[in-house]
Write a structure and sequence with these properties.
By secondary structure, the protein is of the alpha/beta class. The protein has 2 domains: about 290 residues, Periplasmic binding protein-like II (D-Maltodextrin-Binding Protein, domain 2, 3-Layer(aba) Sandwich), CATH 3.40.190; about 220 residues, D-Maltodextrin-Binding Protein, domain 2 (3-Layer(aba) Sandwich). It has a 5-stranded mixed β-sheet. Helix 8 packs across helix 9 and helix 17 packs across helix 18. The N terminus is likely disordered.
Length: about 550
């Protein structure tokens, strides 16, 4: 095991700059009340919020949900956690992966180093995203669960009952000041804990996501070569930008993945952020005229030929590669996923530069509101039947994996071994940023899905991109439309609503390609409402009333 004392300098002294801020209290589903709502309850004592503010930045996170940005940090990285969290035994974890599974332990320096840092034999099951739901269902049915599992915060049938029967209620370990034993978990804003609360308890560690999510990211270097600007003032201006970026003869198109770009289009047309709430009543985005207008506009873009012809059957990795090499100029990214692609393709093409497109109101007259998320992607849950001391050990491990950007622990989790998996890159002002090597790219994993650090903006070699991103996320968070169902639960959504997703998405794709019509849309949504949509709206209304004490 690595002797951590003396290997790094330990953090001391007072806070320099706040790097993680709580979201506004309006993100919470309610401020009180004693009723249980659809399996969740608003009166569970929230974990005490204690920000970790030891890493300096001139670009702090904002209360509305804007991300902190780092143009550089001091080296060597300071140690934030004094003790090795593990007790030396095996710890099994399962999580989804959107990248290739990491190499086996014996050939993986990153994994070996993480084992030493955690003080355990970490047994990782990295399951491809498209196989994850089926694999977890098999584990649940067979009672063969790992110690820690990454679960979605919604979408599982009878989720309150499932959590109660299969996973540990963590309330006694995390509620109130109890969480302060795990300072990196205590640094999560209060709003992030709501999606983990079921059955009058806290059942998992929230995996952070960007609140401003997704985002339309442009290849600024390509726009610059064409004399174009990413600031667009209306839907018509956005169409003109897409047409100017398209050169079919030379294999150049504005974008791929029309269903992803449809999220941006919905924002332009002021479609509700999933549900519109008026006087406590919920109205689905699907039944609004704005949604129909957005569909018509998306179909018009497809007809104009601004999307790659293979957009509906080529895989996501292929679409990312087209954007990375400059065959397309626009890409809709979840969270801050664009950072990895900038690092990968920017190393090959130093001209690569990015800008961020805020949706305009379709008819002009100013910026539209971005649709904001809950700030939580998944949650890391601990299997039931684990003794209390083992629970505390697993929470210490999740605490380590949640270590903040700029700390030695963060480098252990996210980057691996210095000199092999990553190196320091010099930034301005005597500061540095870590950058992965080719070996580091191969050896990385997505183990952070069982807890994970708060999202930040850091782009080694591209400080201007970090500054642009900071301003984009800050402004979008301040003016965006909150997710009205964050922290609310509907059993009908999880049982019947999810079964409609494929049919709805398929019809959207067919309408965009001109194969189906708005009449088909109206018919499908009428059947969806009869089967479950109206019931979901009613359950959300009941849940909101309960947490508001009505």
């Amino acid at each position: 095991m690595i002797n951590r004392v003396g290997r790094r300098r330990v953090l001391t002294g007072a806070a320099a700059t706040v790097v993680a801020a709580p979201l506004l209290s309006s993100c919470r589903p309610g401020d009180g009340g004693s009723s249980q709502a659809g399996g969740r309850r608003a009166t569970v004592q929230l974990p005490t919020y204690q920000p970790f503010d030891e890493i300096r930045t001139d670009y702090p996170a904002t209360e509305a949900g804007g991300l902190a940005a780092f143009l550089g940090v001091e080296k060597p990285a300071p140690e934030a956690i004094a003790d090795v969290p593990g007790n030396g035994g095996a710890v099994s974890v399962a999580f989804e992966t959107e990248i290739a599974a990491p190499p086996a332990l014996k050939t993986n320096a990153h994994w070996q180093n993480l084992n030493d840092a955690l003080g355990v034999d970490l047994q990782m099951q990295a399951i491809p995203t498209d196989q994850y739901d089926a694999k977890i269902a098999t584990m649940l049915a067979g009672g063969d669960l790992p110690d820690v599992t990454s679960l979605p915060i919604d979408g599982l049938t009878q989720m309150p009952k499932l959590l109660e029967s299969q996973f540990t209620d963590l309330t006694e370990y995390l509620a109130g000041d109890a969480v302060l034993e795990y300072p990196m978990l205590a640094a999560r804003p209060e709003s992030m804990w709501w999606p983990t609360m079921f059955n009058n308890g806290i059942y998992g560690i929230p995996t952070p996501n960007a609140t401003v999510n997704p985002n339309l990211v442009a290849r600024k270097d390509i726009l610059d070569r064409h004399g174009l600007d990413s600031a667009v003032g209306s839907a018509d201006e956005f169409t003109e930008l897409c047409l100017a970026l398209t050169d079919e003869r030379n294999g150049r198109f504005a974008a791929g993945r029309p269903p992803a770009l449809f999220s941006f289009i919905r924002e332009m047309f002021d479609v509700p952020n999933e549900w519109r709430v008026d006087g406590g009543s919920f109205t689905s985005q699907y039944v609004t005229e704005e949604y129909a207008q957005a569909l018509d506009y998306a179909a018009g873009l497809w007809k104009k030929g601004v999307f790659r012809p293979d957009s509906f059957y080529a895989g996501t990795e292929s679409m990312i590669n087209h954007w990375g090499v400059g065959d397309t100029a626009l890409f809709v990214w979840g969270g801050t996923g664009w950072k990895g692609t900038l690092s990968q393709f920017g190393a090959r093409d130093p001209r690569m530069d990015l800008s961020f497109i805020h949706p305009p109101k379709a008819e002009g007259g100013g910026p539209a509101r971005k649709h904001l998320g809950s700030g939580v992607y998944r949650m890391g849950v601990i299997r039931k039947g684990v003794p209390p001391e083992r629970v505390r050990e697993l929470l210490r491990i999740q605490n380590y994996i949640a270590a903040s950007f700029g700390t030695a622990e963060y480098l252990d989790v996210e980057y691996g071994v210095e000199g092999k998996d990553w190196t320091w890159q010099e930034a301005d002002g005597g500061l540095y940023l870590p950058e992965r090597t080719e070996q580091g790219q191969r050896e990385r994993s997505m183990v952070f899905y069982i807890s994970g650090s708060l999202f930040v903006l850091s782009t080694p070699g591209h400080p201007d991109v970090a500054e642009r991103a900071y301003e984009h996320y800050r402004a979008a968070a301040e003016t965006g439309e909150r997710l009205t169902t964050a922290g609310l639960y509907s059993e009908t959504q999880n049982t019947r609503g999810t079964k409609w997703v494929k049919d709805i998405d398929t019809l959207i794709a067919e309408i965009i390609q001109g194969r189906r019509t708005r009449t088909d849309w109206d018919d499908l949504i009428r059947r969806w409402r009869d089967d479950c949509g109206d019931a979901i709206a009613g359950e959300y209304a009941e849940a909101l009333a309960a947490v508001e004490g009505r």
